[in-house]
Amino acid sequence: KEYIALRYQIEIAKNTRNLGQDPVEGVRELKRLVSLWQTVKDAKDAKPEQVAQDAELIEGQLREVTINYHQQYLKTKAEKDAAITLELYSDYVKVFPGGPNAYDMNFYHAEFLYQQKKWKEAANAYERALEIKPEGEHTKDAAQGTVLAYKKLLQPKQDNGDGKSERAAGDAEAPKAEEIPEDYQRFLKAQALYIKYVKESE
Fold it and tell me: Which terminus of the chain, N or C, has fewer Cβ atoms within 10 Å?
């Protein structure tokens, strides 16, 4: 595809939003815009300055719509809004991983994932925020969130009450030497970061 196709999709996405059409249709056109930009940004007719200008425009639109849906979900608690918010955050952090707003967006994404009880994904998103800016304004919350998310993830399943989890001492098997699971290793690392960024600063 030629880069000129992006100009048409930019207008379609803008008009869909400005004309007050179905918000879901607006999200759909925005996602098409993001996908198309990724496809054509390296096209032969793509001029670097125009690509950079359009990247800034698309990043701004995607960030604005994502945050708006996040705020809307906090009011409605609707599953549809939650699904769209997760989808938009996922698109943003994949498409703009190194942008000037990546730190904030990864942290907001982590907070939303935690609210949705997606523990592993939340822990990973908090970790990305800490990697981008180890000593930023969200550092303490991100460090604490990482620890809490891993603790939730690693919590043993509760005994279902049928007694199967209880074994006589004489029936216990000798523990086998095993490698420490990756999630537990990351939990230990998260604890170390929590101590470094939170406990030591208190």
Answer: C
Q: How far apart are CA 150 and CA 119, in angstroms?
A: 7
Rounded-to-integer distance, Cα 202 and Cα 198, Å? 6
C-alpha to C-alpha distance for 174 and 93, rounded to whole angstroms: 45
Q: What is the per-residue pLDDT for 155?
A: 85
What is the pTM assigned to this prediction? 0.81
The pLDDT value recorded for residue 165 is 40
53 close to 10: Cβ distance less than 8 angstroms: no
Average pLDDT taken over every residue of the chain: 85
Half-sphere exposure of 4 (CA within 13 A, CB side): 1
* Cα→Cα distances 150→75, 104, 119, 166, Å: 27, 21, 7, 26
